[in-house]
Write a structure and sequence with these properties.
Layout lengths: L3 E3 L13 E3 L13 H12 L2 H12 L3 E9 L4 E7 L5 E7 L4 H17 L8 E6 L8 E7 L9 H13 L5 H4 L9 E3 L2 E3 L7 H17 L2 H12 L15 E3 L8 E4 L2 E4 L5 E3 L15 H10 L6 H20 L4 H10 L4
């Protein structure tokens, strides 16, 4: 296995004690095969543009940048911390070779969650999204947000209750208030494009813009056949759900690496947000570590509905298909197993 840098699955924690150089794969995430040398060269390319980011921060926050620190990377972004004379630190994620689409989606997701969660969850405030430069070989974009001091662990019951409150709150965007599913912008789930056109019906949205979208990207005949069989009978799995299904503000990629705590309060970040059925939030539960206390607190606010277990498998399928598309054939069996258990393979 090739070496990869990560920050103990907590991308907003930048204290050196949390840096980790590891050969193990993060649950649900793995290296796409880029070498450490490629990452080093990418960091070098970024440093040629770092001065312009520092200048942007100084203008935006009206303070002088005193230090820039590399804070780890994923397969699609590198992370930096900027300290300032005002004692305010800024967390910056940069993606070389990408336009602002990915980070605009993240910004709008954080804003939507912050609106819906209120005081129940800590969600980082975003200072802005900008292009880095528009020169050949040096194009890219970045997002700048408040740098949170995250802590490990946390109260699972408090997280479950807070998430349910976010899901049951009135959405930020008018289309979702009117009962539509989707999001104002398309965004990404990991590095995969995630289409979010406003759609009146949840089941149609999930068929076309989640399951079929991933199946088309996969280009695997067996998986495509199984997804089509599932889509043909998807309506039947929602017979126990109260109608109309209300659009909930979703994080969209809620695994353990995107969950932490700040000053004793649950904190979530790095979203792939959209407005959807609240149960879709648990599609990444296979590597989120949710326990009984979490689910009990969640369902105390939003009661479990008949057929939850089967729908949970359908929502996991989307993420297994996405992991197949991102990381390769090792995720085929997980996706195929779900389709088989639902009588679609």
């Amino acid at each position: 296995r090739r070496l990869s840098i990560r920050i103990n699955a907590m991308p907003h924690v930048v204290a050196p004690r949390l840096y980790c150089l590891t050969t193990s794969r993060v649950p649900g995430r793995r290296s796409s095969g880029s070498s450490f040398e490629n990452k080093r060269r990418s960091m070098g390319a970024w440093r040629r543009e770092a001065a312009s980011v520092a200048e942007w921060i100084e203008t935006k926050l009206d303070t002088k940048v005193t230090k820039e620190t590399f804070a780890g990377s994923s397969d699609w972004a590198s992370n930096y911390r900027y300290d300032t004379e005002a004692k305010k630190s800024v967390f910056v994620k940069v993606a070389l070779g990408r336009d602002t689409t990915m980070f605009t989606g993240e910004q709008q997701g954080l804003d939507a969650m912050k609106h819906a969660a209120g005081e129940a969850l800590t969600i980082p405030a975003v200072y802005g999204v900008e292009k880095i430069a528009n020169r050949p070989g040096r194009s890219g974009s970045f997002i700048a947000m408040e740098c949170l001091q995250l802590s490990r662990g946390g109260n699972q019951a408090e997280l479950g209750r807070a998430l349910a409150l976010m899901h049951s709150a009135e959405p930020l965007h008018e289309e979702a208030k009117q009962g539509k599913f989707g999001f104002p912008v398309d965004n990404t789930i990991g590095g995969t494009p995630q289409p979010n056109p406003w759609t009146d019906d949840w089941i149609e949205f999930y068929k076309e813009h989640r399951l079929r979208h991933q199946a088309r990207l996969a280009g695997n005949a067996e998986l495509t056949k199984g997804v089509e069989k599932l889509c043909d009978k998807l309506e039947s799995y929602f017979e126990g759900v109260q109608r109309p299904i209300k659009p909930a503000t979703l994080h969209g990629d809620l695994w353990s690496g995107n969950i932490s705590g700040v000053d004793g309060k649950p904190c979530i970040f790095d979203p792939a947000s959209y407005y959807g059925h609240s149960e879709a939030e648990f599609g990444m539960s296979w590597c989120a570590g949710f326990g009984d206390a979490f689910y009990q607190a969640y369902f105390d606010v939003l009661p479990r509905e008949e057929g939850f277990e089967k729908r949970a498998q359908i929502y996991k399928l989307y993420h297994y298909l996405n992991h197949y598309n991102l990381f390769g054939s090792s995720y085929y069996s997980s996706a195929a197993s779900i389709l088989s258990s639902l009588g679609c393979l």
